[in-house]
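## Example record

The block below lists the input lines for one assembly entry, exactly as stored, with component labels intact.
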Amino acid sequence: MRQAFINRLRAWAARRHGRDSLPLTISRRRIYILPTRVGLMLAFTLTAMLIAGLNYNSNLGLAFAFLMAGVGLVTMHHCNRNLLGLQVDVTAEVDAFAGREASFEFVLRNDSNVDRRDIEIRCLDSGATRCVAAKSSEPVVVAIPVPRRGVTRVAQFELRTLYPFGWFHAWTYVQGSLTAHVAPAPRGNRTVPAAEGSGHASRSEMRGDEDFAGLRTYQPGMPLKHMAWKVLARGGDAAVRSYTSLAAQPEWLEWSSLEDQDMETRLSQLCLWVLESDAAQRVYGLRIPGREIPPSRGTAHRFACLRALAVHGLAEPP
Amino acid sequence: MKSQPVSFEQLLAISLCLALALLPHLGSLPAWVLVAASVSGGLRLALAWRGGAAPPRSAKLLIAGLAIGLLFLQFHTFNGLSAGTALLALTAGLKLLETDTRRDVYVIVLIIYFMSMSTLLEGDSFWLLTYLIGVGWLTTATLLRITTALPAPDWHSSMRYAGRILGQAVPIALVFWLLFPRFSGPLWHMPDDGQSAESGLSDSMSPGDITELALSDEVAFRVRFAAAAPPPNERYWRGPVMHDFDGHTWTRGRPLAFGAPTLQPRGDAYRYTLSLEPNQHNWIFALDWPTHWDLPHGSLTGDYTLVRPDPVSRPIDVTATSFTHIQYPEPLSNFWRRRDARLAPNRNPRTVQLARSLRSTHPDDMEYVRAILDMFSRQAFYYTLTPPKLSDDSMDEFLFQTRRGFCGHYASAFAVLMRAAGIPARVVTGYQGGTFNRFANYWIVRQSDAHAWDEIWIDGHGWMRIDPTSVIAPSRVERGLNDTASADNLPESRWQYHASWLADTRLRLDALRLLWRERILLFNDDSQSKLLEWLHIPEPDGQKLVIVLAAALSLVLVWLTWQVRREIDPTRKELLIRCYSKLCARLAAVGLPRLAHEGPEDYAARVAQSRPDLGRAVGALCRQYSSLRYAAAPTPLTVGQFDAAVRAFHPRRGADLDGHARGR
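Predicted C-alpha cells for the full assembly:
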C-alpha cells in the first residue's frame, strides 16, 4: 500500500518535472516534505501539551508548548532548506559486472554558506549519505546490485534528508538517466590466446625488443629520450625516432576460440581476458559475432570492449 | 537509521538532560520515584560504560510493572498533575534503562519536553520558564548530535544551531501565545490531588501552641487602589472568622449556609484590585467591609467573609469595592447572639471570674470594653513573637501568668473576656497593613502581615471592630510589623528594614513580579479582546481573534521562509565583506566613497588626509578588516566584534564638505 503510493508519487513527479538535464540545481518546487513517524509522535506530544496548557489555563505552560511547536515548524523549514539550492551531477560510471554492484558517481555541490548535512542519494534500494560542507562539493558513490548482464537503466534517483532531528523527511526526485552497462561476470579457466606472429613471446622480448621504424616530427610532449638530436644538430626540424615494439603485436580475443562452450560462459571468459590484458597493459582486440573492436589499449578501449560484451545478444536499447 | 545503537556518551548526555528536567520536581515528587529514575539511569549508564546492551526484556517488564504498581498504590490515580508528573518521571527513568537505539532517545526527548511543560503548569516564575527553556535547548542540541550521521557536529555548533532554531521559533511562539484563543474555564476538571501545600491562614487558631511566630516574607496578595488608600488603622483585610472556642483553640465551626445581612455603607468607598497568590483556601481577603466584587460565584458568608466555591489554587485578580465604615440596620439574630457568646463550660475559670467582677463595676458595654483595654495597657502585658507555650486553660495562663503574646493571644483573650460578660464577640483573622511599593503604586501584603482582631456586638451600633493588639503595640497597627519586631530582637527583619537600598531593590523586584503576573500569568481572553481593540478591530470576538491569528501567522511564516532561505543564498557575501561594505557605504554617505582600485589601507590613508577627525577611527577599522581578511595567523579579533565596531561607527558630515557641496 505504502509502496504503491510511493510508486504513484514517483510516476507523478516524473510526469510533472519531465526529463532533467544534469547538473541540476534543486528548486523549491520539486522538494517534497512530510513528517516522519517520530515527527508525528512529536506532533502528538505537542497537541497533548497544548491541551494540558489550555485546561490548566497556564500561560507559562502554553508559552513552552508554543515555543516547541515553533521549533517544529522552523525545523520543517530547515529540513526543506537542507536540499534547496543544492546542485547534483552524475560524473562517471565505473565498470560493472553481473552479480556484483554498479557504482554511480554523483557530485553534490553546495554554493551556499551553510553546511548541508546528512544528504542521502538513493538509487533503487541503495543509498549513500554525505555531509556537503559550505562552498564545497562532495563526491558520492552509490552502488546498486546488478544481478545480470546487459544495460541497467535508472530513470529516477532520489535526494533525501532527515536533518535536523529526523522529525521531517524532505526529498526530491531527479529524472536523470543513469545507464550502467553490466558486463558478464569475469570467469573462466583458459589463458589469454597468444598474440599473432610471435607465438609465445617471452615477457622480456615483448617489452624490450624494439625495431627502428623511422622519424616523426616532434610534437610537444613526446619523450625526449627518443629525440633525434643528430638531425636537430644538422639543422633539420626537431624529430623523434619512432619504434615498433614486438610486444605491441596485438592479441586477438576471439569468440571463435571458445567454440565448445555456451554463450554466457564464452562471454564471461572473454570478459576475464579483457581485464587481464588490460591489467598487463597489452594491446588487444576483441572479435565477437557482429562486432569487431580493433586492437588498442587504455581505459576507453576497455570500456568499449566491456560494453560490447555487455550488450551482446540482447535487444539493442533504443 | 532508527535502529542505530546509542553510545555511552550519547546516553550520558540524554540522562543529564532528563536529570535537569527533573530537578524542579525535587521537592514535590515522592522520593522513591526520583531514586528509581536515577537508579535505572545509573544502571544503564554502568552497563553502557562496560559496553553492554540494555538488560533483557523480561527484567525490564518486571521492573516497570512493579514501579507503576507502586505508583498507583501511592496516588490511587494517574489523573491529575502530581500523579501524572510522577508517572512521567518514572517512565522516563525506566525508559533510560531500556534505551538501546535512537528510537528510544526520541521517546525520552519527548518525555523531557512534556515534563518541562507540566512543570510550568504548577510553577509561575520567570526563572523557572527561563531554566526550562534552557533545558529544552540543551535537549534539542543533544538530539541533534545523536541524530546527525557522521561527522557528528561538535557541542559548540550543536548548541548554536539548536539555539538558532529556538530563536527563529520565538516569533511563532509569540504570535500563538498572544492570539491563540483562551477559554475562561478549564476544558474538563482535573482532580486537585491536594499535594500543593496550603499557605497563610487556616481554619483554626490556637495561639497557645505557637512558641515562635514564623515571619514569612511570602506575598499573600497585592492590592492596587483605584484612588487613595484608606489610612493604616483602617486597612484590615478580612479572612476567616472564628466562632467556636474550646478553651485552647478557636475554630470556624460549620460552614454557614445563609448569606450576610445587607450593610448600609457610610463614608468613602474604596475601589481596588486584589491580586491573590494561591493559598488553597476559598476565602478572598477583601478590605473590611466588602460591598461589591467582581468574582465569579463569589459570595459573602454570614460573618462577612468574601468566599468562592473553589480554593484559590492559581493566582487570581479580584476587583472589589469596600467601605471602612458601615451600619447594621438589622438587630442581631438569636442564633448569632447565642453562638458568639458561648464559652466552653469549666474552661479558663479565672478569666471568667475576672470578667464577672469587672462587669459588675462596668454595666455599660462600651465602658466595660474600655476597662479591659485599659487593663491590657496599664498592666505588664508585652507583645512578642516568641511567647511561652500555654496549657489547655490557655487564657487563664496567659492573663495571669505569662502575659506575653502576639495578636492571636490578645484577640483571643479579649473575645473570651467579652463572652464571659455576655457580649457577643468573635475573632477575625486576616491581614493588617501592608507595604507600599512607591515604584509601582501598589501595596504588598505578606504572610508576616497576618493579624487577628475582634468584633463585638454593641446593641444600637452593630458589629464593632476592636483590635486589642493596637493597645499593646500601637506601632504594629500604625506602621506594620517590622517596627514592632525590631523592639523584639529579630535581627534579620531589622537589617532588612534599615538597609533602605536593599528595601528599595526588593520593592523594585516585587514591582517586576507584579508586572510579570499581570501581563503574563493572568493573560486571558479579556486581555486578548483589549489587544484586538488596540489593533483597531471593532467588536472583538473569538472569530476575529482566529482571523488575526491566521494573518499574523502567515506574516511570521513569510518572515521565517525569507530568514531561512537567505542563509543559503549563494550570492550572499560572507559577514566580513558585508561589514566592510557597510563601512564603505557609511563613508560614502559623508562624501568619501571608496574608489574601485583602493585597498583598505590606501582608502584609510585617503580618508585620514581629507578628514583628519575620522582618520584614527577609519584607520583602525580598515586595519582590523585587512588583518581579519588577509592575515595568515589567526587574529584575536572576531568578525562579530568587527561587525559591532562598524555598527557603532557613525561618521558625521564635515562642515567644510557641506560648504563645498553647497558651493557646487
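The longest strand of chain A covers residues 100-110. Chain A has two domains: 1-183, 203-209+246-311.
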